[in-house]
Amino acid sequence: MIGKWVLLRVVLPAMCLALIAKAEGFFGSSGFTRIMAAESTAFMLLAAEPAGRGPAAPAQPGPLIQDDKRVTFRLLAPKASEATVNGDFWTQQSRVEPLKKDEQGLWSVTVGPLSPGTYSYWFVVDGISIPDPGNGAIKPGVRVTQSAFEIPGPEADWQSLRNVPHGDVCMIWYHSAVLDKMRRMHVYLPPGYENSKQRYPVLYLLHGGGDYDDGWISIGRANWIMDNLLAQAKAKPMIIVMPFVFAVPQGSPEWSNNSSLFGKELTQDIIPYVERRFRILPGSANRAIGGLSMPNILPDVAFAYFDRFDYLCFTSNGLSDDRIAYYEKAYPGLLDNPNNVKRVTFWIGDGANAMTFAGAKNLAERMKQRGYKTTFLTTDGIHGWPWFRRYFFEMVQVMFR
């Protein structure tokens, strides 16, 4: 106890504390923070129970991960009348499982066994969504915060922290001239970057509708996945740039202009900054764009600047015929241009149980019909991070080859 504060030791396995910070002015146009890839230990202060306010509330139990890879979700809520658990560990989109309450007011349900990996979940208690109050591992988000847990096992080694050479992740603050505001992005540098003069291809990796620019690191584990692949020589070394795709707040009156504004920011601010700051190979053959999309940010930007990228990669998203027709009208002749057909590669991954699957399947079929080199990876997954990681793992292995 420190006065009215309690000092807690917290392990941050997914992304460690900032170790090196450099700035010009007030974290000006070149301000960046380096975040190492390895596990780190941090400390935080939490308010203690003030004297005279009675006993503290009973401790919440948190999830119980069993040796047989089953998981019991537990929530102490004696006065609640209904509780359910939602999560991304099922292969049914939006599946909800009710919890049962015992005589002590402890709600619980057991699921699984689950495949090794990292998952997120949340409770809905009497109509209110909450993270697990007994679990300190969280999945941060723009709109909601969820809880997370890991099922260990060698099947998940490809996405786990391992004893291999690690790259660095830089958290960069820059001034966007397009938006006239300070903005943030994360950049992954492959192992050995600092000690070489080599130039690298670059992937511009977009996060989803519920995430920040660090989503592919904090929950997606893109840095660990790349480290493990590079250690086995299964991927080509590359720089990965993860910008914040929301140029305006979601739901704001300007939201309809978001894709246009972000596209301008990407091409006028971010790409020039990255190519000045880091050793990047020039040309569209060394540039890819991919990731998630909310709702059509990725294709809106990719088709508007089609000449900038030779690789378009969709992780659990796609396009309907109506949306493809929209782009054909906006950019006449673009998709049927023989030079583009020869130059551009499409990579698409999605799960048969994802709400995005029909669009992904349609995009793959339409691009193949037009003659584009197209890969379509299908799983039995849903639209969720356990599957996004898998698609990232697969797609980076074929990039820039």
What low-confidence regions span 5 or more consecutive residues with pLDDT below 50?
A: 1-33, 36-52
Per DSSP, the total helix count is 8
Structural class label? alpha+beta
CATH architecture of the largest domain: 3-Layer(aba) Sandwich
- Fourth-tier CATH superfamily name of the largest domain: Alpha/Beta hydrolase fold, catalytic domain
Tell me the major beta sheet: 10 strands, mixed
Q: Which outline best applies?
A: globular
Summarize the structure.
It is built from eight helices and 22 strands. It has 401 residues and is α+β, with helices and mostly antiparallel strands.
List the helices and strands and how they pair.
Blueprint: E1 5-12, E2 18-22, E3 32-36, E4 40-47, E5 64-65, E6 71-76, E7 83-87, E8 96-98, E9 100-101, E10 106-111, E11 117-125, E12 128-130, E13 138-139, E14 146-151, E15 168-176, E16 181-189, E17 202-206, H1 215-218, H2 222-231, E18 239-243, H3 258-277, E19 287-291, H4 297-304, E20 311-315, H5 321-330, H6 338-343, E21 345-351, H7 357-369, E22 373-379, H8 385-395
Parallel strand pairs: 17-18, 17-19, 19-20, 20-21, 21-22
Antiparallel strand pairs: 1-4, 2-3, 3-15, 5-6, 6-10, 7-8, 7-11, 9-10, 11-12, 11-14, 13-14, 15-16, 16-18
Helix pairs in contact: 3-4
